[in-house]
Amino acid sequence: MLSSLNTQSLHFHRRGGFIEQGRLIGIGQRNGLDFDVVLFQKSLAEC
Fold first, then answer.
1. Most buried pick, 22, 35, 41, 47, via CB within 10 A?
2. Domains of the chain, residue spans
């Protein structure tokens, strides 16, 4: 699970073959900013 505010981590995981499988919208707040929690998954068969 990743914060939607962490764009570098989101790009890193997408480049690594992870696929977004879910998103909890507006569930967190940091420094006055609302953010989503993003769930990624990668099949072990692809490794």
1. 35
2. 2-46
